[in-house]
Amino acid sequence: MSVTIRFFSPPAMSDPSAKPLQEHILIILDDAGRREVLLTETFYTIGRSPRADIRIKSQFVSRIHAVLVRKSSDDVQAAYRIIDGDEDGQSSVNGLMINGKKVQEHIIQTGDEIVMGPQVSVRYEYRRRDQFGTMPGNEQFDITLIDPGMIDDEEEIPTSVSSSPPEME
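Given the sequence above, the corresponding structure tokens read:
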């Protein structure tokens, strides 16, 4: 077995260009199964139409069921507003249920559950993580280092596993 160790020097955390990564994600459950869509644009159409930016696989969803519009703000997190219907203002047949309430439009927040029809739901997540996190795929090499000073010398540490129960004193 060989282990590859990679060393890199990340920029100093005081570097203003080293900002946390921000991801806006839609997790879609429809007839095609579960998938995640990373939101990077300022405008999306959502529906079953082949011309929809985010395509939903279900006969119960309108051709253009809703639109997503990024609402820029002065703070770090840009919010998305979901609006029922197409870009011309034509409402969808089933409408939008967000967190159990029927709405025409809504600024979506992490954890919001959007239902567009039977067996069609979309969940929104906003993820923020450090730019220099762990490398994906190397979880099998994650280890915990123990400082020898943390071990109490007086406490007996078992060195083998026994199948019989411990004796009672």
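Confidence is low (pLDDT under 50) at residues 1-14. Try to locate this feature in the token string yourself.
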